[in-house]
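Task 17 of the worksheet. Students: predict the tertiary structure of the chain below and write it out as structure tokens. Keep your answer in the requested format; marks are given for formatting as well as content.
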Amino acid sequence: MPTDSAPILRARALHFAYPGADPVLTGLDLDVRSGELLALVGPNGAGKSTLLRLLAGLHHPLSGEVLLEDRPIHAWRPVERARRIALLPQHPQAPPDMTAEEAVRLGRYPYLGMRMFEAPEDLAAVDEALRITGTLEFRNRRLGTLSGGEAQRVHLAAALAQHPAILALDEPTSDLDLAQQLRIFNLLRELVHARRLAVIAVTHDLNLAGRFADVLCVLHAGGVAALGPPAEVLRDPALARVYDVTFQRFDRGPAEPPLLLAHPVVTDGAPA
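Model answer:
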């Protein structure tokens, strides 16, 4: 449920470009609040993953700033930042012979300090993360023996073991079947409600985003093309121009986001 709380994370006038390439983001502003699931959507090349990495402090903007709790994000020490923001990349890298429990224990790294071994509170955090994600039964399984959905939940458990305030996920349901997609997003909704996490999720699935997100942010041409509740954004006529398609909308009521079916743009009798 959307909140009126002050943003925990703010992007202001962000400009970013990779070396030798055209700008990806130009003057982008965005607020992220606790207790909200914010979905970043937009066509390929719109800058979704880049923005996620900027918000997590892994990239430095050319200009503008990201503020974490009203403090410039790069003023935080990396270990402090890791205790506040957990980033789950699209393709997490972990040795296939590592067990699920070993992978989740990596999430406690920001808390170890000079200790070589986990303290009881670290082990408790690992057990809790395994339980929440329904992966306790996999704790002794090698990652290489798990299905895509099972492994994704283990990586999500590692992120939750960090006890972050902000959970940033880059296409957390890519390559997963429908049941696993719903399971992941249902879990994210539960975390938003139960723990008041701020969740930022990049996804290409507009209907999935519309069903589970509190706020949709549509990126296009270096900036925010649309921002707001899914019920409003998915009815925005600009959405068709952003994706260069035509949308057939199936309304479910004024307060509910419509279901979208995309069709290619037809020019002179042939798809463009």
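Marker's comment: The mean pLDDT is 92. The two ends are 39 Å apart (CA to CA).
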